[in-house]
Known about the structure:
Strand content: 25-35%
Shape: globular
Strand order of the largest sheet: 4-1-3-2-5-6
Number of strands: 6
Amino acid sequence: MKDFGYVFASKMLIEGKRKVRFMYREKGKSGDSGWRFFCGDENQDYADNPDNIALYDIQTILDIDKSVLPYLQSAIGAAYERGNDNGAFKMSADYDFDAEGM
């Protein structure tokens, strides 16, 4: 996707070629689409460690899991989750954004 901007994703998701089970969009900065992708097995300590999160082109995510494509135009503040790798995404009801990130 040309000019989409980069995304952040957990290395657990990318290196393991895992399906996305949690994703959200916050306000990005200069080239950042604002999208964040996780496989859902990361605990908070893992996610808080900057060595476990990296920048990727959106195509890297799509090569692993094309099911995220319909959601990529969602507004800032959107968050989606699913219970298993093949389930449908639903709006995440319990994700609370940091007001500074918005």
